[in-house]
Design brief:
4-stranded mixed sheet
Length: 429
């Protein structure tokens, strides 16, 4: 594909340079993360965080707050008994209940420490550099507010993870991962279903006001046999200049989401192609297939976690009390990080295959290769994407076909289906 028909040599050179810089920053961040986890796991600092968690648990149990709370909730019957048990010092199960608090607080303290140490680099890549490249609209105050929201949400999830993971390991040392597997799969499905509501923590959504565009999109949805809860526009321009479309939710919560940048700056035919591409993912296979893929991946993931916890507990130098010791968390994440690194090329390859098939579905649904090619020319320019990255970079990083590959796919489809397509008329006026 001759890219000079769509982009200037200066644009291509600039975007290639930006891609290289982004990849360098990725490897810096990855190296710092591996260094942090290694230091934490092998120098005894993980034991220090465990002591902080134990001191926190002791501090909580030295306060009458739980007993007071139990009295206030006495009308709730069973909850009253739970709070009375948690607040009664000296009972037989106090040590176990105290350990639950350690299980929950260790991941929170660990995450907080990592978030603070990685904050300078995250601020540079997520705020400073995005503004320097002209890709961001987010204000200084809004960036910090989003960071605090994300930190709070992840800390809450990490506390629940600590309770579920280490509590189960302690109770069911050999089979915990099988029991947790069902809970994880169910939680992932619920997490996906709730995604339209979770997104409202950060963004505002409104129904698509353009009736002609909505009718065009609904026609595409109907032709694909796709039932949606609606077509909504997200106020992404508050934070970024990038544009996109996606389908959010699962089951009755599924809806089509368009960024306001996409609606404001792209041709209706291009927007229709973007929606058709997302629909393509749902038309590729039986909808049960993604669920079983997720379930199998979760099972293998938890089995790997079991092996790491079992092996770590048998290394006296690590100072771990048992596989259920929350101080194993940094080592577990370190081991998982190496797994993700090794799996990255395969994950990228499979994602590219799915995206390529979704592109073909979009072309088949819209029968508009000019709009298809025009969409990716505009997206490449707006998002400042390198349209033809080096082979090694594409192999390891790319979860989508390159813009050059997508343009070639559009022209190939036009040729195969006897549709006239002139490169000089792209992008659409």
């Amino acid at each position: 594909m001759d890219l000079s028909a769509f982009f200037t040599s200066e644009e291509l050179q600039t975007w290639a340079s930006q891609r290289a810089a982004t990849q360098h920053l990725y490897f810096v961040a990855l190296g710092l993360k591996l260094l942090f986890l290694s230091i934490l796991s092998f120098t005894g600092l993980h034991l220090g965080i465990r002591r902080w968690s134990e001191n926190f648990a002791n501090w909580v149990y030295a306060r009458p707050v739980l007993r007071w709370l139990g009295a206030k909730l006495s009308v709730l019957g069973r909850l009253r008994k739970i709070f009375e048990r948690l607040g009664s010092a000296g009972t037989a199960g106090e040590e176990t209940r105290r350990q639950w608090l350690v299980d929950a607080s260790f991941p929170v303290l660990f995450l907080l420490l990592y978030s603070l140490l990685s904050l300078p680099l995250n601020y540079y890549t997520g705020y400073v550099r995005e503004h320097d490249l002209g890709l961001a609209n987010i204000s200084f105050a809004q960036w910090w507010l989003d960071w605090i929201k994300s930190l709070g949400l992840v800390m809450l999830m990490s506390a629940v993870l600590g309770l579920g993971l280490f509590g189960l390991v302690r109770k069911l040392r050999r089979s915990w991962w099988l029991w947790l597997w069902g809970a994880v799969v169910g939680a992932l499905v619920l997490w996906t279903m709730l995604s339209p509501y979770r997104a409202r923590i950060y963004h505002e959504f409104s129904p698509l006001a353009d009736e002609a565009l909505r009718a065009r999109i609904e026609t595409t949805l109907t032709s694909a046999g796709f039932e949606s809860a609606g077509v909504e526009v997200i106020n992404s321009s508050l934070r970024t200049k990038k544009a996109g479309a996606y389908i959010m939710g699962e089951g009755p919560s599924k809806r089509v989401i368009l960024s306001d940048n996409l609606v404001a700056e792209f041709h209706p035919r291009e927007i229709q192609v973007a929606v058709a591409h997302e629909l393509g993912h749902f038309l590729l296979a039986d909808q049960a297939q993604p669920f079983w893929k997720t379930a199998l991946a979760a099972l293998l993931f938890l089995a790997y976690c079991q092996l790491v916890l079992w092996a770590a507990s048998r290394r006296p130098r690590l100072g771990l009390k048992s596989p259920a010791d929350p101080a194993t968390l940094p080592l577990l994440i370190l081991a998982l990080q190496f797994l993700f690194i090794a799996n990255a090329p395969l994950s990228a390859y499979l994602a590219r295959q799915e995206e390529t098939q979704a592109d073909q579905q979009a072309l088949n649904l819209t029968k508009d290769p000019a709009a298809f090619c025009s969409l990716f020319v505009r997206l490449t320019r707006l998002n400042q994407t390198d349209p033809q990255p080096p082979a090694w970079s594409h192999w390891y990083f790319s979860h989508h076909p390159s813009p050059a590959e997508r343009l070639q796919a559009g022209f190939d489809w036009a040729e195969q289906n006897y549709v006239s397509l002139d490169a000089q008329r792209i992008p659409l006026p």
